[in-house]
């Protein structure tokens, strides 16, 4: 495999594969990289091969250049991160809408897991399953909607500024590379956003939470309507009770007034009868005594006086 590599195209080679670390890739430790490099040098160094009788291509045209470049990249944290950012084996694909409709967790869990390698944050929430709480699901999507990625694209710079002939040319190269990096970063963040948006739209838990929230709001609305109706019914009952109490009070008052009137009328009749009896008694007494007169003339006069007295007695009584 090493002999098929083009030393002049070293930038497009898989540096992990050169060291036989393709199965580990970004998870390979510096100790593993150093050990792999040492083994490669002992086996493929031009001096070793030349001593074994192999014809060596002079200069940078020998495939050993690919080993040197691979170590240069993977032993430097900054250069290695730049290469890891454009790892040729990384799957940038985002599940389609049709894929997301069925087997949501089976489809999306591995996608989020592999993209989690780009985060600057240590703790990455899991996608979870249908048993996840609202808080857990909310934390998951909050993390991904605010995804902080360390992935950058300087490894894909078109020109090396060190090869520029003057300062102005270096500045022009840097400007072009910054623009290209920014565009690729923008496309990368759009890719992540598309992944999160698509997942959110098909997440069955989101639908469940929305349905639950809708049901809760409807229940609250119904409870408010019932409470208001009950309150109105209570007010109406209270109003009817007040009206009934007022009616009963009025009836009682009218009945009492009626009883008072009847009693007054009864007493008046009694008094009237008593007065009539007394007047009659007075008249009879006076008549029996001939009105206390000696002659008819005086008797008539006294009769008139007696009638006046009876009328006066009635006025005094009533």
Automatic annotation (TrEMBL):
Residue ranges, annotated region (Disordered): 220-243
Keyword Magnesium: no
Superkingdom as given in the UniProt entry: Eukaryota
InterPro entries given in the database record: DnaJ_domain, DnaJ_domain_CS, J_dom_sf, RAC_head, RAC_head_sf, ZUO1-like_ZHD, Zuotin/DnaJC2
Domain J: 14-87
This protein's UniProt keywords: Chaperone, Cytoplasm
Record flagged with keyword Glycosyltransferase: no
Protein name (Swiss-Prot/TrEMBL): DNJC2 protein
Gene source species: Polyodon spathula
